[in-house]
Task: structure prediction
Amino acid sequence: MTNFTHLDAAGHARMVDVTEKQPTVRAATASGMVFCSEQVLEALTSDAVPKGDAFAVARIAGIQGAKKCAELLPLAHIIGVNGAAVDLELRDDGVLITATVRTADRTGVEMEAFTAVSVAALALVDMVKGIDKSVTIGDIKLIAKTGGKSGPWKREQ
Result:
């Protein structure tokens, strides 16, 4: 069982010890979709969401999510989130959310980018659910990462 980095010799969950690793600059970008109806898209486009500026709330929620990642995922390391950007783009079928998180630390920020997208999506749903309860969240994925031992990686289109 020692082939799994998050299991000890007895098979118990453990946090990987990164104490001896040198900090390096790392970044990760993730994306996801909030699929919604034309009615929701119209409200977002015309600034008519009853709860207020849905995009601003989702952006801030996503950034906060990136900073809280280690509190949500039991084996994630507490790292310094040195930069976090959350972008929202209206599409024909919903809202594309893209988050990029950066650090200069001992471990990567992929989970922080995933968390930023997920929390931003949840916040957006919370803002528009009064207009249409059928909104859904999906297609959350890693787009790219840089830094660390494994080096750069980019999703093929």
User: Anything to note?
Assistant: The chain is about 30% helix and 30% strand. The mean pLDDT is 93. The radius of gyration is 18 Å. Strands lie at 24-35, 83-91, 94-105, 136-146, 153-154.
